[in-house]
Design goal:
heterodimer; A: two-stranded antiparallel ribbon; 5% strand; B: mainly alpha; two-stranded antiparallel sheet; 14 helices; transport (chain B)
């Protein structure tokens, strides 16, 4: 493989993004679970709930800090490695990132310190409010990031400005209420809630298996199972919504997910298994379920879902039309201060396909001189790698349904069977701990790998988005990240395991002395001193 | 939306230029003392209880403070996309150094005291030291290079290209003038960190050492700042717009002509009032040195004024240039041609006007809740302390 700068930059981004998302889902979910536990403590005044808050809060902290640290990498990387992308879409894409800082990240980061350091300085209720602010901040943070990401999938509310050579925002509300972004947001945070629920469930199950910390473990399972069940259902429902939205605006991604080479008569069948083969344009050993795909993708019985072959043909047409836009753009840029309205209207006629002409820049410096073969090649490039996307999607969906089953089982046992759990189920709960992370990473592979060859769907090709850096520089930072992130991961896992093994002993002792110290205050004014 | 026409484009650009300064200065004032304290850590405290005390003076607040930096990055992306694109990729390896420091720092704070063991803790202490000192130095070096001009040019399609190769680019950043600016930056943040310890640590061996080191660092910052001013006057060329910029022109840096030559300091002849910034810089840092020597509890207020003045003086001197190009001056980014669109600047301003006061309010509340000196028993009583 040629080590070119585009591939290296993609590798680095994929690595750091997937790594970042090892910590994010747990932050999203655990912050809410901890806030729920503390709320129960405030309402019931039972020390066990305070212990739970502190114990899970400690694990939250160990995880949170790496989420923050690796998130900074993400924000910097756009400018460092994707400078043309930053220039080209910064007018739209930068805004949600900045608002994320203003509205969400400041909230979460300012109050997380108080969460750990404020137990003795705040009233019970005030501390609980602080915990909720951390949780709300984390979740709002996800909202703005996914608005930015949703725009890359479905670039609404913006037009190209030939004078500044970039996309500019013309409808902020459209960017905000982008249906793709909204569906993605709920899908993603729900996935975070499931992750945290599976985590709390698994760790608690381990305690029960070892016969330790029964009080904490049983209560934690009850909270995790009920919250987890609702979230697992939400993940699938909103995942379906995402799929439907993708069917509307990212037809190629949809076709790749389904490995649907040719357009089928409606309603299309769903391929449960198979081995997609890009060269042969067919899926070997495919096992189809009739009708299902048509229903998911179009919510109708008579709308066709276009297959990959047809979409390539469509892309070819758009490339040819994009060449008109490219030519008109060059005319405008050559005219300096003498741009005429005719030039502008000629550009605007086909400007929607300008990005397609950029696909040719991989093969020629001036797309207008592209040969027939290059145009066909560029059209073919619009097909992402079907095999990994097809399978990543199936693993994600399979796990998603499994979580509903697991959560429902534990919910029933905890609500109607007196919180008794057979040992096999507890073992299963421990084994399944890594599964939500796998599902989440698979989801991102479908979303981002499936968007290739674009960074912004239909607008800006990935190959054009990179910074002009040396191969050595990027190799160096990749090596740096690998070493650095591996060490941090080992340290983090070590600490997590240490604190899980240790259990809530210290929290229990601390809570006991704390409750004694504050007995008078907790009893409220006028109460007689207890000792 | 027509609403954004309420404020004209040129005014919005100036507002966002000011806000960029506010964010960077906000970062230096808040996260600056965290970094200063981190860099001072191995030198002001020797035993483990001492070190934990020092770390816990910033323990509850560094996380929020760091957001100033993240918000600064986001705001540059949103309001000055060409600046974000050119500077972050142009300073690639330097940015990676900062990134490494910003990743190590949170982890070091959080994980250091989660295990016993001298070696484990000692390593994290030095990590905190480096993670404070390296960004302080690199930011100064970056400012120095911005003043000298950065070797980039924009193609006809506004794609940034850079001169130089990989590590040589990084080495080229480390020129004498930039290193001088790095020393100023490190010196002022060390003095600032020492000032924070005067406020939060109980008087004792820690504050004694902080006073000694901090006053030396503050003196270095003052001397370096004066020397850098002289250097700008005598040795380094400035950059200027050849013709007055068009405040509401399209954001295309190639449309304006920038010339290299003369001195940056001619700005003080054109806009004499900006002399207030260097005066604040000298006076504030001078007071900070005096206060550290005398052991004032609130000496941090002085270093705040000093840092505010020193950073503001750079921006005010360069206005309206933001990032000059040394190899193709016409590619230089200015306030008039490197911003977001009119609409985006307006929306971002609305968001800032709503949220910045809220942020300041709750941040102030958090500092109030945490008010008071950190003692050794605070550290040992709280299982969550660092």
């Amino acid at each position: 493989m040629d080590l070119d700068i585009v591939e290296l930059s993609r590798l680095q981004f994929a690595m750091t993004a997937l790594y970042h998302f090892l910590f994010v889902p747990l932050t999203l979910g655990l912050s809410i679970l901890v806030a729920i536990m503390e709320t129960v403590y405030v309402m019931t005044n039972r020390p066990i709930w305070r212990q739970m808050t502190k114990f899970w809060g400690t694990l939250f902290g160990i995880n949170f800090v790496l989420g923050v640290a690796t998130g900074i990498t993400m924000e910097f990387q756009f400018g460092m490695n994707w400078s043309y992308y930053s220039h080209y879409v910064g007018d739209i894409f930068g805004a949600p990132l900045a608002i994320e800082g203003l509205m969400a990240f400041f909230l979460e980061a300012t109050f997380v310190g108080l969460f750990f350091f404020g137990w003795d300085k705040l009233s019970k209720v005030a501390h609980c409010v602080v915990t909720w602010l951390v949780a709300i901040g984390s979740n709002f943070s996800a909202l703005w990031i996914l608005i930015a990401n949703g725009w890359m999938q479905n670039p609404v509310g913006a037009t190209f400005n030939p004078m500044t050579m970039r996309m500019e925002m013309d409808d902020f509300a459209a960017v905000l209420f982008n249906p793709v972004a909204q569906a993605k947001f709920v899908h993603t945070v729900s996935a975070g809630y499931v992750t945290a629920s599976v985590f709390v469930l698994g760790v608690s199950a381990w305690y029960l298996l070892k016969g330790r910390h029964q009080d904490l473990a049983r209560r934690s399972i009850t909270v995790a199972a009920s919250f987890g069940l609702a979230s697992a259902l939400s993940v699938v429902v909103l995942g379906d919504e995402s799929g439907y939205d993708a069917g509307l605006n990212q037809k190629m991604k949809m076709a790749a997910i389904e490995a649907m080479w040719e357009t089928e008569p409606a309603p299309a069948s769903f391929t449960l298994f198979g081995i997609p083969d890009r060269e042969a344009r067919e899926t070997h050993y495919a096992f189809h379920i009739p009708y299902v795909m048509g229903l998911i993708g179009t919510r109708s019985l008579n709308t066709e879902i276009p297959g990959i072959e047809d979409l390539v043909a469509e892309a070819e047409g758009r490339i040819r039309n994009g060449l008109n836009a490219y030519d008109a753009l060059m005319e405008i840029r050559g005219a300096g201060n003498d741009v005429t309205p005719q030039m502008v209207s000629r550009f605007e006629e086909s400007s929607a396909d300008l990005g397609y002409a950029f696909l040719l820049l991989r093969y020629t410096d001036d797309p207008r001189t592209a040969t027939e073969a290059q145009i066909l090649q560029a059209a073919d490039d619009t097909v992402p790698h079907v095999f990994p996307i097809f399978w990543a999607f199936r693993i994600m969906v399979g796990l998603g349904f499994a979580f509903i089953g697991i959560m429902a089982y534990f919910f029933v046992r905890s609500s109607f069977r007196g919180m008794t759990y057979p040992r096999w189920a507890l073992r299963a709960a421990v084994i399944v701990i890594p599964a939500p992370w796998i599902a989440a990473e698979m989801g991102w592979i479908v979303a981002e790998y499936g968007r290739q060859p674009w960074t912004v769907d239909g607008i800006l090709p990935t190959a054009l988005s990179v910074s002009h850096l040396g191969v050595g520089e990027v190799l160096f930072t990749i090596a740096g990240f690998v070493v650095f992130y591996t060490v941090l991961f080992i340290i983090e896992m070590g600490l997590m395991l240490k604190y899980i093994r240790k259990g809530p002993v210290q929290d229990a002792e601390e809570t006991e002395t704390w409750m004694r110290r504050h007995e008078t205050r907790l009893a409220g004014p006028g109460a007689a001193p207890a000792e | 939306m027509i609403l954004h026409e309420l404020i004209d484009y040129g005014t919005l650009r100036v507002i966002w230029w000011v806000l960029l300064g506010v964010l960077l200065i906000g970062f230096a004032l808040t996260d600056g003392f965290d970094m200063g304290v981190g860099a001072l850590l191995p030198f002001v405290s020797r035993t483990d209880p001492e070190r934990r005390l020092v770390i816990n003076t910033v323990g509850p607040v560094w996380e929020g403070n760091q957001v100033w930096f993240i918000l600064g990055g986001g705001a540059i992306f949103a309001a000055w996309p060409p600046l974000y694109a050119v500077s972050f990729s142009g300073f690639y390896l330097a940015m990676f150094l900062i990134l490494a420091a910003l990743i190590v720092r949170p982890v070091a704070f959080k994980y250091r005291s989660k295990r016993d063991g001298k070696v484990w803790r000692e390593r994290w202490d030095w990590a905190l030291c480096a993670a404070g000192a390296v960004p302080a130095l690199v930011f100064g070096v970056a400012v120095g290079n911005v003043l000298r001009g950065v070797p980039f040019r924009l193609t006809d399609t506004l794609m940034p290209l850079y001169e130089g190769w990989g590590f040589l680019k990084l080495l080229a950043l480390l020129n004498p003038f930039a290193l001088l600016c790095g020393a100023v930056s490190l010196g002022m943040l060390l003095a600032h960190g020492a000032g924070w310890l005067m406020l939060k640590a109980e008087p004792g061996p820690i504050t004694e050492r902080a006073r000694r080191i901090g006053s030396v660092a503050g003196t270095v910052a003052i001397a370096g700042y004066a020397l850098a001013g002289l250097w700008l006057l005598v040795l380094t060329d400035g950059y200027h717009l050849a013709a007055p910029g068009v405040p509401d022109g399209p954001s295309n840096p190639l449309l304006s002509e920038v010339v290299k030559g003369g001195t940056w300091l001619s700005a003080y002849a054109a806009r004499p009032w900006i002399v207030i910034a260097p005066i604040m810089g000298f006076a504030g840092m001078g007071l900070s040195v005096l206060g550290l020597r005398r052991g004032w509890e609130f000496v941090i207020l002085a270093s705040k004024i000093g840092i505010l003045g020193m950073i503001a003086s750079v921006g005010l001197t360069m206005f309206p240039i933001i990032l000059p190009s040394s190899i193709a001056p016409d590619s230089s980014l200015t306030v008039w041609d490197a911003s977001s669109s009119h609409q985006t600047l307006f929306i971002m301003l609305v968001a800032t006007v709503i949220f910045l006061p809220i942020i300041l309010a709750y941040t102030a509340w958090v500092y109030r809740v945490l008010w008071g000196k950190v003692t050794e028993s605070d550290v040992t009583d709280n299982a969550n302390s660092y």
